[in-house]
Amino acid sequence: MEPRRKIAIFGATGRTGKAVLELAVEEGLEVTVLVRDPARLPTPLPPVRIVRGDARDPAAVAEAVRGQDGVIIALGTGNDLSPTTVMSEGTRTIVEAMKAHGVRKVVACLSAFLLWEPSKVPPRLLPVTEDHIRMHRILQRSGLRCVSVMPPHIAEELPLTRDYAVSVGAPGPSRVISTRDLGHFLLRCLGTDRYDGQSVYVCQSYARE
Questions:
Q1: Are 152 and 176 in contact (CB under 8 A)?
Q2: Helix or strand or coil: residue 15?
Q3: Looking at 75, 109, 154, 203, which residue is catalytic?
């Protein structure tokens, strides 16, 4: 029997991160999560290894990254749209830990706004988008095998289909993706080199009942 693939998830208490976590456990992966507050993880608690800490803390991040086959970054700010460097600082710390411990594959969830002209980004979303841009630059310069996933609107109420449109470097035919389909694609990217080094848009046209 082959050993289970080991992955670390950063941002596992957010909407996208929770979806990734649940799907990863369903797939039988060995999962480590770095969280500030374990009480915010899904209940009942999946069988995962928990490292308590902040994504900007080098020691905690190193503990989570060490020995992994790949990393998923799903850092976010929730409903806080104010200027921030939390996501980019966390990404820099994760990248440094990955290099130090020989972990080469990372899949990061960013935003479709990075595929737009900056002047077309809604002003209220610009501060968060600017930090996504900083994240993307860090990843591009990292030398790691990196996939930058840039989803449109993420909808929790829509289903898991495992059937979605993927386009490289440009928006696709829809402006929505379900949280679970996005989580499924992030995990899919860990298991293939097809999208390494690419900025990828993923979407689906869901039938509304």
A1: yes
A2: helix
A3: 109
Q: Helix or strand or coil: residue 161? A: coil
- Annotation says 203 is catalytic: no
User: Active site includes 146?
Assistant: no
Phi-psi region of 102 (alpha: psi -120 to 50; beta: other; left: phi over 0): left
How many residues are present in the chain? 209
| Catalytically annotated residue among 8, 20, 74, 189 | 189
CA-CA distance, 131 to 149, in Å (whole number)?
15
- pLDDT tens string, the chain, 209 residues long: the values are 567 899 999 999 999 999 999 999 999 999 999 999 999 998 888 889 999 999 999 999 999 999 999 999 999 998 899 999 999 999 999 999 999 999 999 999 999 999 998 889 999 999 999 999 999 999 999 999 999 999 999 999 999 999 999 999 999 999 999 999 999 999 999 999 999 999 999 999 998 64
pLDDT in tens, 124-143: 999 999 999 999 999 999 99
